[in-house]
């Protein structure tokens, strides 16, 4: 006996699409709870089953599940499914109505097309397990109109039959209690005023004592003395015009391609850098101040880009890897 339909039914609880290879796919769609007002019927949420004959490719879901359930190989499971589909097609070709238990029934229409009628007996929505549809009898509500006049008449009738009389209660007068209360209040007020006067006097005395101590206090700072020596730079030290004219001699080469050695905020430091580079054989010089206010020192300037790049590569290897090329007309 082929139990393929049983395995399809079990998979529909867990998956939204179960394909029967070579035949079609069973699809599920969640439907919320429904109430039919005309019949007073209540239906729990469920999965609606539909069929699509266009999806026939084997996705392996049914075959793997069948092979695991019956402890057979995947190839044998595929062959068993094929035999089941062949039997379905043969019965449909002879006009028989095919019933898949718990899933639905198949039949051929007048136009010779395959039709599917889902079963309503099985609910594949696990969340709705144990819920069943039922029909509730209609609820008839009787509306009783109660007005204010009705209540008024009822109250008047009760008052006529059972009148209610209120007797005021007489209390024994005790005049001494009144005087005792007055005395207690007077003592409380007097004590409060006396306490406030005492607090005011205390605050006044404390303030006077504080002022006298403050006037007698002397403050002796214990900070050590700091002697600052300010050295004023001369105009020659700041400008270094003589040194600039010396290091930027007429022998310096010209050009728009400059290999930058550094940029300095203080001009004297820039001049020292130029002298140091000249001592090592470079034709160094100052080329002016950049937009950041820094004095730029170059290893040298070149008129040809190729020569400048070659010199830059050599300087990066032997002198300073931070050197870079500036292209600027001076």
From TrEMBL:
Keywords: Membrane, Transmembrane, Transmembrane helix. It comes from the Bacteria. The chain crosses the membrane at residues 176-195. Residues 251-328 form the SPOR domain. The keyword Methyltransferase does not apply. This is SPOR domain-containing protein.
